[in-house]
Structure formats: C-alpha cells, structure tokens
Amino acid sequence: MKTQQIILIIILAFISVTGFAQEINETTDESVGFYFQPEYSAMFLNNHIGNAVGFGLGISSKNRKWDIGIRYYGRSGPINLQDDYELVLPAGETYKGSSTITLGADHGYLGLEAAYTIILKNERLAIRIPLSFGQLGAGFYLRGEDRFTPDGERTSVWEDRLQGGSDAGFGLCSEFGAQFLYQLSSKNDHIQLMLGAAYINTYGYESFLGGNDFYNNKVRVSAGFRFSF
Amino acid sequence: MDFKKTLLIAFVLLGTLEARSQSYAGLSIGVSNNDTHMETLWFQHQLTDRFSAGFQLRYSQVRYRFVDAIAIKDGSTAFGGLVLGFKLKEVEKYRLDFNLTSSYRYLSNDEKPELAESTSGLEIDPNIILSMKLSDRFKLHTGAMLRTAMQFGETPILNEQLPSAIVLAAISYKVNSHSIALRVYTGPMNGATGDSMKYFNQISLGYQFSLGEKSNQFSFFNF
Fold it and tell me: Which CATH fold would you assign to the domain B2-211?
C-alpha cells in the first residue's frame, strides 16, 4: 500500500512541479485537438470512501469546446485496503479452517465520454461538463494469503463457490457532472488543474455482498490534470 | 514463396534507404509489483517522419505473476517483441505519439511443480504518450497504457490481462545524443475472471542514445 501511494505521489509531483515550468507563447493550432486527463477519484459509497485511479482520453473540436473520447477508471482492491467486507459462511462450511472470511472489493468502469467546455470571464478558468455512458464491472475477492487456495484451484473458483457464483457482476453505468479547470500558467493553455464531481447511476449491476445499489446513485469527486493541444 | 520473401525484403530495404537515418538504442532497469527487477534493451529506427519500428528484449525475475491464472512468486520471464512508433501530432513544444509493443513472453515457473513448468504468452502494450518540452533538455511525458496479455499452451487464457487504466508519467533529460528517463506507471488491472494482480505499479530508469542524422527536437520515447 505504501509503495502504491509513493508512486502515485511521484506521478502527481512530476506533473504538478514540471507543469509549472513551461512558460511559452504558443501559436494557434487550428486542427482537431487531443486531450488527456489523468485523475484520482474518491467515490462516496455506502459505508466508506473508495479510492480510484483513471483517465479521460480523446479528441477536441477545432474551437476546443467539445470533447469526445473514453473515460476509464478503477477502484482497485490494493488501493482500498481499509475497505473490508466480512463474509459469514453457511453453518458447517469453512475456508482454510475459518467460518468467516474477509473480502476486498474492486471495480472498473469504461465508457464513452462527451463534454462541453465553457470558458469563463477570467480566461484561465473554465467549466467542463462531461457526460459518460459505458460498462461497469465490480466484485468481491479473496485478499492476501487467502488468494492461495487450499487445494491449488484458481482463486476465482473459490470466490465463486463461497459467494454462490455471484462474486462479480457487470452492468451499465452513466456519469454526469462538472469539472472546474484552472490554467496553471497564463502563458500556457495546454496544462490545467482539474477538480470535478460526477453523479453515478448503474443499471443492472448486482453482486452477492453489494446488492443493487453498491455503486448506484453515488457521487464521485476527482482531482487531476488536463493536458490538451 | 521465395519471390514473396524477396519482394518483402526489397520493400523493407527501400523503405529503410529512403527514410531518415536516425536510430535509437537503449537500456533500462526497473521494478514493478510483477517483477523484483527487470532489464530491457531496445533498438528503434526512424523510417519516416511519422513512423518508426524496432525491437525490444526484456528479462525479469518474478515477484508476483500467474501460471494458469494461479499466482506464483518465484520464476523468471523473458520477452522479445516488436515496437511500432507513430507520431500522431506535433505542435511546437508538444508531441503526441502512439506506440505499440507486441512481445512474446516466456515464463519459467520455479515455485509450483503442480503447475506447468513454463508458459508462453503474448503481451500487447499500446500506449499514447504526450510529450511536452519544458526546456532545451527536459521533457515531461504523460499518457496511458492499455496492457493486454494472454497465455497460450495447454491452458490458453486469452483474457489474462484486459486493457486497463494504467497512467504513466515520466521525465527525460537529453544532452546531445544521450538521454535518460525516469518513468512511472500506476493503475488498476483486471482480467482472468479476477485472477490477476488487480493493481499495477512500475518504475524504471532508462538510458538511450541516438545514432545518425538529427531529424527533429523530439526523440523516440518508449522507455
């Protein structure tokens, strides 16, 4: 966990520290643009806040107001180690001698994204309004040493067995929100700080422990950078 | 068959002769939550202003990998593959590249005798890299990698790793024909019905030198 946090900090430090250094006057580019938005997200779920990492990636219109691309992020188990779920096994059933096991949860989302950007009076500020629709996959899984199964079977086989075949599920997902963009340097409009919030709805996702609403009707806030040119 | 081979070789030679003659060679060392250490060698040749091609060789010592979708902690891997580089856009101090590395992977399992002693597979690493010139010598690189991996053999697993949201950030420093780069990857990974490593971290330090004519301010970057 510490290693992952350190690497994430290094990435953000790279981007933030070096991003300020560019002070140049760019010529106007009249062709279709490109954008890339790496981000960290906090997902406000039922009983905890989930950590997620991901990005938006795509092309921008010539006037740089419209974006179309993909959005991809994941709330991976190893960066959510505090997020444990207790599974009490049916009477007489055990896993490695224990009748209660601790599971982790993970999630991934991939969707198409369309966004419109409004430049505010202060040209260093903008509001971006993204709308995204795609597929969500999520589930609950054995952690740590429990991943090494007692009979040498694949971990997913035991995860299926212990959770009645519903350890993971898929569904459709939509996101709608707003992002606040701040141009870090007045002379460089290619690098912006991004702070955003999105409202998430899922359609058809269900799992053994999480139920229908584990990710449905939830809010995700995110912080990152926008690189575009 | 011989005629086709001759034709193919002729086209390759023709393309090579007509192209700018800049080439890149380098090596890197790194660690990841897959591998305790990994060493990579590569050679890349600029065929046209927009297109380059080359090869990459890598060796690593296993920290946490999968044989038949079951985790092992002891073994080694060897990779050999082709690297294609496409420049998508370049505007003054910014450049956008798409690089595709396709590698054959050989994994030697030194830990669990009940599993296959070795497996072979394919790793496909498409990445999009945005490079920004910070000064004459420093460049910032950021982008995304969508790694996909599969295992062949008696137990084929075509979704060993599905394309995942891996973010990369790097900084490079160049003096004349020599450059060094520090590159970091981080992001969730999935595949194989959950029998995957879940999250991927990698950090590597690389050295690259260029040979031949200097064609532009941005050199090939994939290390």
Answer: Porin (2.40.160)
